[in-house]
TrEMBL record, chain A:
PROSITE patterns: PEPTIDASE_M14 (PS52035). GO terms for cellular component: extracellular space. This is Zinc carboxypeptidase. It holds the Pfam family Peptidase_M14. It comes from Parapedobacter koreensis. Transmembrane segments: none annotated. GO terms for molecular function: metallocarboxypeptidase activity; zinc ion binding.
Automatic annotation (TrEMBL), chain B:
Its cofactor is Zn(2+). Belongs to the peptidase M14 family. Residues 157-223 are annotated as: Disordered. GO terms for biological process: proteolysis. This is Zinc carboxypeptidase. It comes from Parapedobacter koreensis. The keyword Hydrolase applies. Residues 1-23 form the signal peptide. GO terms for molecular function: metallocarboxypeptidase activity; zinc ion binding. Residues 47-409 form the Peptidase M14 domain. Residues 163-173 have a biased composition (Polar residues). One of its GO terms (cellular component) is extracellular space.
């Protein structure tokens, strides 16, 4: 009783501090929130810094569960997948906070007895710090040194705050060779000139800065390093700015992947990042992807470049749940970039991988650029769409009016600085965050309810002559998700369901294997097994895997 | 320590060593042509050295050739063994890291143990020949550096040497892996049932067998002929079903392939068998990669493997064909065809087309990510038993014959009965782990030398840049026109075509000092006066490449000055200058 009161008080206190939160968290505040979880819920929470980044930030891991957490089916929840997406950090740490605050409810307590959650609130902590820095700009790269333009120098041409407002916005130059025109619906915003419509560009448009190294490019090699979301192995591309010297070259990726590869209990990954396969599920056999080799002996397996029918079917109902629980609509179509985390989690890590940015600029009606019909607003002019939405919501302080300056690279030309503020297109005003986090927490809990789960049904013993018994049963996946994805079936970093017959006394198994492993079992599907056993007394049969639970049945011959 | 004291100490060390080395006095010896007449570090090249012996030899080389050889650990293996790197160059003639360099390694596949000896042989040969005063090596080590990592999978090397193994185990490192995915790691390895230190074969007499004894040699089983009744069945390598899952030897030590772990075109294990978690997820390879990345002077690389008598180049996978373009292939062809001449019986081939596909292989990373001309040598070929082309199962018969008549049975464990817990009465026997994929002892030194000569040829042809010519003419208006021709006297360019396409290495810089540079340019065609101006920093002209056996020409317009120095600085080509 005392314990309950105490945890209630703690929960209330936490709630109090949460309400006090008025902005996204910097690394000290995140560390504090992580520590608060550990202190408030010692029975459920273990926290650990997996690594220190080059910039001196911690890569936090919050393990939520009970008992032997590494022996229970688990979901990995990952935030900060993209450094400029601060909401992703909130969604991950906020999930942990709300899940635990809800642990007073029986249903959540039962979930924490059965499953484990690994929460990695921020995989891009060096980059997200830029939001809180004296000079604010959208940053994806860590603090490692990188040579984006491959000229032998690092960080020699970053942004420059030409108007001294502490934010990197944009520069537009009136120029006969311009690539952009003013958006006729909102001249504060610029859109690409469309030659097919006979539009002649009037403005050059680029991020605020000058050509510091006089190589003809603007801001192409600033101080930011490698992107977490470009550094994974699936569709990794060498030499891409921000991708790193090779796949998984960075401390952040290595720390997470080393942990995850050894976490055999993980059956699904939820990534809060730019890619979205929750609003709209993955398509089976989508075109594109890598060509299969034609010549030469194959190295073993076929490359997998799309979700299998069985996995995509699971994505369909997960997606339906997502849309229903979060109430979100009109999400813009996204394409996962090269070396992205979300695709790695399915195609190489072999787990169900679900990803969402959690928020996007709500849809508005098509404007006269005419390209918005039936699509998310950001498909046409994201800035125009945002400004329209922000105005309707009374949101301000998100745009700097264009103001003429002298620019050393364009002497004698009309150059203006201004435009949309960094971060506002992908991160909602903080007042909206709590509601978004709440809905996404409910979704992740619902996803956990679909977990693959091994059960044993229809256990039968048939006496044959002369002390012989036929034992048969069905191994049943009572969850909705298959216990292994198509990749999981083939990768040795995932465990198959093992079935072991434990005999006693002088029992002999005359047919059927005493120990075997099974191919993937789809959601709500079964596999039938039988054995011929000679002898009498008790024996037990154990079926399961670390990512889908274990069931043991006792048999008396 | 004073100079003279140091000298005395060195002298006494040398004398002690010389005493140890000289069981026979030099005056009683006539050198065999091409071999060091009186090596400071005597080594028997007809046996294998474990990591302890290897380290001892490396230390002796450092002590015997203090101006040439240094050694350092570049990292630690999974089990904590040091990864030794020998750096070999004439340090009086310039620092190792500024000279064009060749990188050599051995033993990434630890069962392929002769590769380590071959890598070590190169270190030994170039230093001993240098010490003997051979003019070629005096010049070679003045100009070039050899980075030699003889044993880059040391855990499994010691495992192979000291523990029972087959000829094929252990290719992996020693990080435990659950190969059969049952939740247990390395729980069902081979078992040395007869306790002889070798994992050989199990065979059983059986009326249903497919084999009969070879009437020529009853040690050997051959398939029963048409209408003939089989008498034996083969049961695989020595072992039992340790974990009772109905499979024998299915989850042994390690269980991955270190040569599928490199950061180019990497694919996971379900596509590329043997891959581990991600590129350089194995500490041994990561150490090599880190070394490579911090030594941009490496322009050539070779790795030793077995078997088949092959000189391999990339690409390892067909998808990588676009990264092997004409100019780069011409360089590989020039090297590979020379290799075929120097090592008769070895064939120069393209890995994915002529052997098999590999994702994440070592030389693909070196070529693809670092622009280095990298190859690997598959050592030993069964054709060499009796110098004949093999075919139709002949090679196995030759292996028996060779064992009988040239090794006097030393390569074979005689079949002996054994009572197996699962198979009952069987026989155990067959070829030892050190015969089949490995050279017979007396052929080791000969093949080591031929492969070394190919590596030395490859190293010799790393770029050699020179300022060939500087011309100053009056350009009118008080300006002088200074034109410099930079040449590369070797086969390997300072930048591969693939490197240029992706800007892997920074450009070579040609600088002018003397006078005030008003403008600088790369000369595209000197006769027709076609140039491309470099607007920024014109005194230091960046050139994308100094081509294979070719020249690059640059020009400045200069105010004042009457003495000019042109300097070229190339990461892979070294430095050179000329004054006028």
């Amino acid at each position: 009783m005392k314990k309950i009161l105490l945890s209630l008080c703690v929960a209330l206190l936490c709630g109090g501090s949460l309400r006090a939160q008025s902005n996204y968290s910097n690394r000290q505040q995140l560390a504090q929130r992580v520590n608060t979880l550990a202190k408030s819920y010692p029975q459920y929470v273990k926290t650990q810094s997996l690594a220190k980044t080059v910039g001196g930030s911690d890569i936090w891991m919050v393990t939520i569960g009970t008992g032997q957490t590494d022996q229970k089916p688990a979901i990995a929840v990952v935030g900060g997948v993209e450094g400029k997406h601060l909401l992703g950090v909130e969604l991950a740490i906020g999930f942990a906070e709300k899940l635990l605050a809800g642990a007073v409810a029986d249903s959540v307590r039962q979930l924490l007895d059965e499953q484990t959650f690994y929460v990695f609130p921020n995989m891009s902590p060096d980059a997200t710090e830029q939001y809180f820095a004296a000079l604010q700009y959208e940053r994806s790269g860590n603090a490692n040194k990188a040579d984006y333009d491959r000229d032998g120098q690092t960080g020699e041409d970053g942004y420059d705050d030409l108007d001294g407002d502490g934010k990197i916005t944009f520069v537009r130059v009136e120029d006969a060779t311009g690539t952009h025109i003013l958006n006729p619906d909102d001249p504060r915003s610029l859109i690409p000139a469309d030659l097919a419509k006979g539009q002649a560009g009037q403005y050059l448009l680029f991020a605020e800065g000058i050509d510091n190294d006089k190589d003809g490019q603007f801001n192409e090699d600033g101080e930011e390093g490698i992107h977490f979301n470009k550094n994974a192995t699936y569709r990794y591309r060498n030499f891409l700015p921000g991708a790193g010297e090779h796949a998984v070259s960075e401390v952040e990726n290595r720390a997470l992947f080393d942990f995850l590869y050894d976490a055999f209990n993980v059956y699904a990954v939820v990534a809060f990042g730019p890619y979205n396969n929750l609003s709209t599920p993955e398509q089976v056999g989508r075109s594109g992807g890598d060509e299969q080799p034609q010549l030469g002996r194959r190295p073993g397996g076929r490359k997998i470049t799309s979700w299998s029918a069985q996995d995509a079917k699971a994505n369909v109902f997960v997606s339906e749940q997502y849309n229903k629980i979060t109430g979100t609509t009109g999400a813009p179509k996204t394409v996962a970039g090269e070396g992205s985390f979300a695709e790695w989690a399915y195609y190489h890590y072999g787990r169900f991988s679900f990803s969402t940015p959690g928020w996007w600029v709500p849809s508005v009606k098509a404007d006269s650029t005419g390209r918005a019909r039936g699509m998310g607003s950001s498909a046409s002019d994201p800035v125009g769409a945002y400004l329209k939405w922000a105005a309707s919501e009374g949101i301000t302080n998100n745009f700097t009016e264009w103001k003429a300056i002298e620019h050393p690279d364009f002497p004698g030309k009309r150059v203006e600085v201004g435009g949309i503020h960094p971060f506002v297109l992908t991160n909602p005003p903080y007042a909206l965050v709590d509601g978004i986090v709440g809905k996404h927490t409910d979704f992740v809990i619902a996803l956990a309810g679909m977990a693959p789960k091994v059960d044993v049904l229809d256990l039968k013993t048939e006496k044959l002559d002369n002390g012989l018994t036929r034992v048969s049963l069905k191994v049943f996946n009572s969850g909705l998700l298959p216990n292994l994805t198509q990749v999981g079936e083939r990768s040795y970093f995932l465990k198959r369901i093992a079935v072991n017959v434990q005999t006693t006394g002088n029992q002999q198994v005359l047919s059927g294997r005493k120990s075997q492993t099974l191919d993937a079992i789809g959601g709500r599907e079964t596999v039938e097994l039988s054995w011929l056993v000679q002898g009498s007394g008790k024996l037990s049969i154990k079926a399961g895997s670390v990512s889908s639970g274990t069931k043991t049945v006792e048999v008396t011959l | 320590m004073t100079k003279s004291k140091k000298y005395i100490l060195t002298l006494s060390v040398m004398m002690t060593m010389a005493l140890m080395a000289m069981a026979q006095k030099p005056e009683n010896i006539l050198a065999a042509a091409g071999s060091p007449p009186n090596p400071k570090v005597p080594i028997s090249w007809n046996r294998y050295h474990d990591n302890t012996a290897l380290e001892e030899i490396c230390r002796k080389m450092v002590a015997a050739h203090p101006g040439l050889v240094s050694m350092a650990s570049i990292g630690k293996s999974v089990e904590g063994r040091e990864l030794w790197m020998l750096t070999i160059t004439d340090r009086e003639q310039g620092s190792a890291d500024r000279k064009p360099a060749a990188y050599i390694d051995g033993g990434i596949h630890a069962n392929e143990i002769q590769g380590v000896e071959f890598a070590l042989y190169i270190a030994w040969y170039v230093t001993e020949m240098h010490a003997a005063g051979n003019p070629f090596f005096k010049q070679l080590l003045a100009e070039k550096t050899f980075y030699i990592a003889p044993s880059i999978n040391p855990d499994s090397r010691d495992h192979f040497i000291h523990n029972p193994n087959t000829q094929n185990s252990s290719r992996s490192g020693q990080k435990p892996v659950d190969n059969d995915r049952d939740g247990l790691v390395d729980e069902d390895d081979f078992d040395d049932l007869n306790g002889d230190g070798h994992i050989t074969q199990m065979r059983r007499k059986s009326p249903y067998g497919e084999y009969v004894l070879d009437p020529q040699d009853p040690k050997r089983l051959i398939p029963a002929g048409e209408g003939q009744k089989g008498e034996y069945e083969l049961l695989g390598y020595e072992g039992i079903d340790n974990d009772g899952d109905g499979l024998v030897n299915e989850d042994g030590a390690g269980g991955y392939d270190p040569n599928r772990d490199w950061g180019w075109n990497w694919q996971p294990n379900y596509i590329q068998g043997g891959a581990y978690k991600y590129p350089f997820s194995l500490p041994e390879n990561r150490a090599v990669a880190d070394f490579f990345l911090s030594h941009p002077n490496i322009g050539a690389a070779q790795s030793f493997h077995n078997t088949g008598g092959l000189l391999l180049r990339g690409p390892g996978a067909q998808e990588d064909e676009p990264n092997f373009t004409r100019d780069d292939i011409a360089v590989y062809d020039a090297l590979g065809k020379k290799g075929e001449e120097l090592i008769p019986g070895y064939r120069y081939i393209v890995t994915y087309k002529d052997l098999y596909s590999v994702y994440g292989g070592e030389f693909d990373w070196m070529h693809g990510a670092r622009g280095v001309f990298a190859m690997s040598n598959e050592l030993w070929n069964a054709n060499f038993y009796f110098n004949r082309q093999q075919g139709g199962g002949r090679s196995q018969a030759d292996q028996y014959l060779f064992d009988q008549y040239l090794m006097f049975g030393d390569g074979f464990v005689e079949w002996k009965p054994y009572n197996h817990p699962q198979y009952g009465e069987i026989e155990i026997g067959g070829f030892k782990k050190n015969y089949g994929r490995l050279h017979p002892g007396f052929l080791l030194e000969s093949d080591a030398h031929r492969n070394a000569s190919f590596v030395i040829y490859h190293a010799y042809h790393t770029p050699k840049v020179a300022v060939a010519d500087v011309e100053v003419v009056d350009a009118g208006g008080g300006l002088k026109q200074v034109t410099a021709v930079i040449k590369n006297e070797r086969i390997i360019p300072t930048h591969s075509a693939h490197d240029i396409a992706h800007k892997i290495e920074v450009p070579d810089v040609v600088s002018l000092s003397g006078g005030t540079v008003v403008a600088g340019m790369v000369v595209e065609n000197r006769d027709l006066g076609i140039t491309t101006e470099q607007r920024n920093d014109p005194a230091n002209i960046k050139v994308s490449n100094i081509p294979s056996n070719g020249i690059t020409t640059v020009r400045w317009l200069v105010k004042g000055g009457d003495k000019f120095t042109v300097t070229v600085d190339s990461k892979k080509g070294g430095t050179a200058s000329k004054s006028l």
